[in-house]
Amino acid sequence: MKLRELFTPDVVNLEIQSDTKDDILKELIGLLDMDEKSEAILFKTLKRRENLGSTGIGKGIAIPHCRSLVVNRLRLAYGRKPGGVDFKAIDGNPVYNFFLIVAPPLEVSNQYLPVLGKIAQFAKDPDVPELLKEIETPEEFLNLLEEKAQ
Amino acid sequence: MHPQLMLLLEIQDLRLLREALLEEPKEEQVESDHFKLEADEAVEALDDKIDALKERLEPGIRQRCKRGLPTLGRMVVPVISGICYGCFVSVPTARTGEENDEIRTCENCGRFIYFVS
Question: Does residue A6 have a pLDDT over 70?
C-alpha cells in the first residue's frame, strides 16, 4: 500500500503550535480524534518510547511511533512546526516535521513495520526536507507523498 | 476509564514494545537502523518501568496477572466489534459498548478486556 493512501487531510497539521516535545506529541495525538483517556495512554506510551531514545532521525524529521492497545487499526498523522523545536534528534538539530505512527498489537495487514520503514526512507530523500517546508496545504502534502514515497 | 484499567493498558503497551525488541528481529532492526536504539538497554529500562507500574496495581489484579501471564501471554486485550481479541470469542452483547469504567474480564479466557469503539 502507498503511504499516500494512509493519510487524509484531517490528520495533517502544517502549523503545529506547541513548543515542547511533550506538547507536540499531544498535538499530534489530537489529530487522531480519540477519546481523552485513550489519548492519555497513547501519550504515555509514546513518551516512554521517546525516553528510550529520540525518534528524531535527523534532517529535521522525527517519527514518533508505537504499538498500543488504544487503536484498532494503523493510524498516522503529520505535523509541521515551521520554527522547529528541540526534539533531541540524533543529529542534534531542530525538528520541523513529525510523522506519527500508531499500530494495534494485532494487525491483520501487518503494515506497521513496512510503513515505518517507508517513512524513514522518504525522510532520507535529500529533497524531502526542503519540499516539506514549501507545502502550503494538506493536499500538497498528500501529493508530495504520492510523488516521492512508494 | 477505571484507573487500574488505564494502568493495565500502560503496562501492556510497554510489554508490546519489549516483546517487539526481543522477539521481532525485523522490528528490532528497524529500531536499530533508523533510530539507533540499543535493544538491550531499552529492554532493561522497560523492565524497570513495568515493575514500577506493576507495584501500583491493586493486589488482587496484580495476583491475577501473575497467575495468568505464563499461560495467557497478554493479560489485557481489546474487545472490538464485540469480539475478545484474546480468544476471539464473542463477548455477550449486553456487556459491549461499555465506557471501560469497571475492571472486566472475558468470561471465556479470563483476560482483562478493554472496549474499543
Answer: yes
pLDDT in tens, B46-70: 999 999 999 999 999 999 888 877 7
In this model, does residue A2 exceed pLDDT 90?
Answer: no
Helices A36-52 and A21-30, interaxial angle, to 10°?
Answer: 140
- CA A116 to chain centroid, in Å, comes to 10
- Which amino acid, residue B113? I
- For chain B, domain boundaries: 3-116
Q: Which residues contact A146 (CB under 8 A, 6 or more apart)?
A: A2, A4
Terminal Cα-to-Cα distance of chain B (whole angstroms): 13
Query: What confidence tens digit (pLDDT) does each residue in A67-124 have?
Result: 998 898 899 999 999 999 999 998 999 999 999 999 988 777 788 888 998 998 888 8
- Overall CATH class of domain B3-116: mainly alpha
Strand ranges of the sheet holding B76-80, from the earlier edge strand across to the other edge: B83-84, B76-80, B112-116, B104-105
Interface of B with A (CB under 8 A): 1, 6, 9-10, 12-14, 16-17, 20, 26-27, 30, 34-38, 41-42, 45-46, 49, 74, 76-78, 80, 85, 100, 114, 116-117
Chain A contact residues (CB < 8 Å to B): 35, 37, 40-41, 44-45, 48-49, 51-55, 57, 63, 66-72, 90, 104-106, 113, 116-117, 120
Three-class DSSP category at A30: helix
**All cell numbers assigned to A107:** 494487525
* Cell output for B71: 499461560
From the list B107, B100, B106, B109, the residue with the least C-alpha distance to B6 is B100
Q: Is the pTM of this model over 0.80?
A: yes
